[in-house]
């Protein structure tokens, strides 16, 4: 009666995880809590924009024309200048792509650490972590954090907390800076090299490879394969409104790879020619689902129908403990005005806000079930989608 | 610290000598506040806590001694004085304070009156890691008649040609008509990189610049550049596309040479990270050719062009009058100062401003005008569309229309002044006299002037009789 009941409740409490705030925007209590937290950290609250489609009303939707900096003071005193610059670059899309965002984040954190001085009677290991919290809230307001960024932040916080208290400030700072450099070197640069090595084994001469949008990793693989004199050609599939495929196309053609460019609506027409599909990932979820740019699940679905192998390339630092089976629960809503297009001087959707029954939805991510993915190429090797939880467990044991 | 504000208040006001003869330009009253208050207020509203003000000794003395000049700002002002006769350009002044400049600077001119959202300019500077970011505005026609001007406003101002790219933010070309011999010459290297350029001529340069610290260090080494607007900005805009900037560039070389050895290592390691970010990011500022974002160029100049809103540079008489009309919109103080003694039987229009300690007597009518501090207006005076500065006495029965009366002047009984400019400390005295249109009186130190008919002529100092 006494002990067993207590043990059961204890386990129950540790299993129940709180829902993150960014997927509870339609709950006023949560919004109020968030506003209070931001006020305490002296970060301005960014307000939502436009009518949200009801299925996604639990997510934030911001406008690019209302940046967070208009509510901040110039020069920024509360937030470190390099973090303000980073937030601006995120919200304007100048730094886009999972790897780019993580590297930029770590670069900004290096500046913050360099400019940091421990106040008297405080310990670096605790104070620096507290200093980073408002910065992370700020960046979250500019653009929701990606899974890779979340993992990088967890790593840094752990490293900072592990600094022994008798360590001198200069020494501690140098140690942290080298940790960050090592993290980037290992998890991003060397991981990319390892993944290219595995992936090149899978590319044979005469292949027709289909890629979707822009993935820095997949581009890297294709360029390396081309340098190792594999003969293949690439089909770049692109979709509105981001049209990231154009940038992927430019970089591949610049190297000399022969490419074809289609929009996603032509996918089923072009698939009979394709021999392999290489996809990049934003994150790999704990149940084996692949979270990537919106449209990826369609590519995987149609490729499965045509029996074309689908290979997902993803570094291990993007593996995330979240579990998701659909694209509604947790996603990102981009600026709806991006969907407006001006042709011959006329913008048809110019006054979309005046039409009460019209909502513009600009989703950023979607999830692909593991049944559609044949292989995941990571820096640990080539694994099936269902082995992701194993990798996560091994990683946790390491740490 | 992210940005340091530098306010340039040492200019002479060479285009409105009639006004600045006695009062230095930064202290000219606009809406009963000194001109320098407006940019200081803008900086304070945006969140600056300290400003470096470069000014002359005369201005500094007047700020500290004259009770009428109240700056009313909470920011810390670091006044740097330069000699009045040193003939320093704005770039020279920036070079002068090079030791005080520790980070990137925001240079503002003292004659800027605007309600622009400064974050637009600074965001361009931050997001694109730009070397220069500036503010410009669409020019508005001045509607008020200017005293002392003959007929239509002559186009003495040379046009500025400003070339921007498709987004309207990147500055590609800037030249003044005076520097161009026959036509606008655009280099092929610019056209190759930016095939679509919009060239605008009707823009007012607000003289508000965000400059990187390396530019200030560059100025220290290049003493030949003396004006920011005239020489430095066109130089930077041109340098964006020069071949040498796309490999070890002129400006950053001086920047790196000034750094200590250990810091060079850190910065070069960080450059690698920045390069890594750009390599992996899928953003490009242009499309249609094979080059990377920004065409691989490291020097970038940006401009924010305001479509609507107030943006004036008070450097001519016409701009001064227009600014007085619009200044009340920029602050919330009541139009009639509480310490002014205004009698009940006078008519004060809604768009007039009455300064502190004024005395307005009965049966006066004040419409669309600004009355300065400690001014006395006697009975039956009609003031329309005019600017009356501080300490002026207007005797009974005067009729003042469309004029500018400078400080401490005395307008005698029954004077009828239309579209004139009366200089400071002068007396326009005559019973039932009329000063005909387009007359200018510049007088100083209490000389008396007897006025008879005047037509389109200008009187200068110390004359006793104004002749035809």
UniProtKB/TrEMBL annotation, chain A:
Gene3D superfamilies from the UniProt entry: Translation initiation factor eif-2b, domain 2
Cytoplasm found in the keyword field: yes
Cellular component, GO annotation: cytosol; eukaryotic translation initiation factor 2B complex
Keyword Cytoplasm: yes
Cellular compartments annotated: Cytoplasm, Cytosol
Annotated keywords: Cytoplasm, Initiation factor, Protein biosynthesis
Source taxon at top rank: Eukaryota
UniProt-listed Pfam families: IF-2B
Molecular-function annotations in GO: guanyl-nucleotide exchange factor activity; translation initiation factor activity
GO biological-process terms attached to the record: animal organ development; central nervous system development
UniProt record similarity statement: Belongs to the eIF-2B alpha/beta/delta subunits family.
Assembly and oligomerization: Component of the translation initiation factor 2B (eIF2B) complex which is a heterodecamer of two sets of five different subunits: alpha, beta, gamma, delta and epsilon. Subunits alpha, beta and delta comprise a regulatory subcomplex and subunits epsilon and gamma comprise a catalytic subcomplex. Within the complex, the hexameric regulatory complex resides at the center, with the two heterodimeric catalytic subcomplexes bound on opposite sides.
Matching PANTHER family: TRANSLATION INITIATION FACTOR EIF-2B, TRANSLATION INITIATION FACTOR EIF-2B SUBUNIT DELTA
Function: Acts as a component of the translation initiation factor 2B (eIF2B) complex, which catalyzes the exchange of GDP for GTP on eukaryotic initiation factor 2 (eIF2) gamma subunit. Its guanine nucleotide exchange factor activity is repressed when bound to eIF2 complex phosphorylated on the alpha subunit, thereby limiting the amount of methionyl-initiator methionine tRNA available to the ribosome and consequently global translation is repressed.
Record's protein name: Translation initiation factor eIF2B subunit delta
Automatic annotation (TrEMBL), chain B:
Subcellular location: Cytoplasm, Cytosol
GO molecular function, one term: translation initiation factor activity
GO CC field: cytosol; eukaryotic translation initiation factor 2B complex
Example GO BP: cytoplasmic translational initiation
The Nucleotidyl transferase domain, residue ranges: 5-140
Domain of life of the source: Eukaryota
Keywords carried by this UniProt record: Cytoplasm, Initiation factor, Protein biosynthesis
Stretches assigned to the EIF2B subunit epsilon/gamma LbH domain: 339-424
A Pfam family matched in the record: LbH_EIF2B
Cytoplasm listed as a keyword: yes
InterPro entries, per the entry: eIF2B_gamma, LbH_EIF2B3/5, NTP_transferase_dom, Nucleotide-diphossugar_trans
Function: Acts as a component of the translation initiation factor 2B (eIF2B) complex, which catalyzes the exchange of GDP for GTP on the eukaryotic initiation factor 2 (eIF2) complex gamma subunit. Its guanine nucleotide exchange factor activity is repressed when bound to eIF2 complex phosphorylated on the alpha subunit, thereby limiting the amount of methionyl-initiator methionine tRNA available to the ribosome and consequently global translation is repressed.
Family named by the database record: Belongs to the eIF-2B gamma/epsilon subunits family.
Oligomer and partners: Component of the translation initiation factor 2B (eIF2B) complex which is a heterodecamer of two sets of five different subunits: alpha, beta, gamma, delta and epsilon. Subunits alpha, beta and delta comprise a regulatory subcomplex and subunits epsilon and gamma comprise a catalytic subcomplex. Within the complex, the hexameric regulatory complex resides at the center, with the two heterodimeric catalytic subcomplexes bound on opposite sides.
Protein name as catalogued: Translation initiation factor eIF2B subunit gamma
Species of provenance: Oncorhynchus kisutch
Gene this protein is translated from: EIF2B3
